[in-house]
User: What shape does this take?
Amino acid sequence: MGNKLNFPATERNVSAILQVLQKHLPSGDIFEIASGSGQHVVQFAKAMPDHVFWPSDPDPDHIKSINAWANENRLANLKIASSLDCTNSKWINGQKDLSLPNTATAILCINMIHIAPIAAAQGLFTGANKRLGAGGILYLYGPFFGISEQEAASNIAFDLDLQQRDRTWGVRHLNIVKKIAYNEGFDLSTIIEMPANNYSVLFVRK
Ligand SMILES: C[S@@+](CC[C@H](N)C(=O)[O-])C[C@H]1O[C@@H](n2cnc3c(N)ncnc32)[C@H](O)[C@@H]1O
Assistant: This one.
């Protein structure tokens, strides 16, 4: 087992997310922000050999876990995990980072923007604007308010729970995310309903 972390929710949602990515991701270099345990990115890299995956996370234990899953699977298209916090000025200003290519064709961020202050969503889009060319995809996955006509009870309860854990956290309203996205040069392209009241939300760089 070693450094490998096992997130049960990640194991549960990986195949539904993979189906969306296989349909919508342009091939090329794909950055993942907030890779967590690394269970997702290993499955993505296995199933999508034409895409090169660059995982990252700010948590040192998560970096170790991502690299442990990667070492076990030995995939040529899965790179070593970078230590990356998307509120960090280096990411926000688009500075060169020796551990990542300067540009990507898509950026993935799964289950992060509600478990972080809104500055993380802002930083994600600001940095993504600098690293994606026209047509580049920013893929978000997670719970959102403002999509379903009636909010799911489980998402309302989850939002309260998040705010009790940290009052800067919470399920984000799609309009707030859209506003950040538009200001950073992205259009909303696709919303896909996912299991357990989650959504895949795809933005495209103008
Ligand atoms: C709920 S976990 C999701 C992990 C993984 N994407 C998944 O779905 O299994 C949230 C992750 O966001 C990361 N995170 C929190 N704040 C961040 C930030 N400002 N920039 C990048 N990642 C961040 C955490 O370290 C954690 O790995």
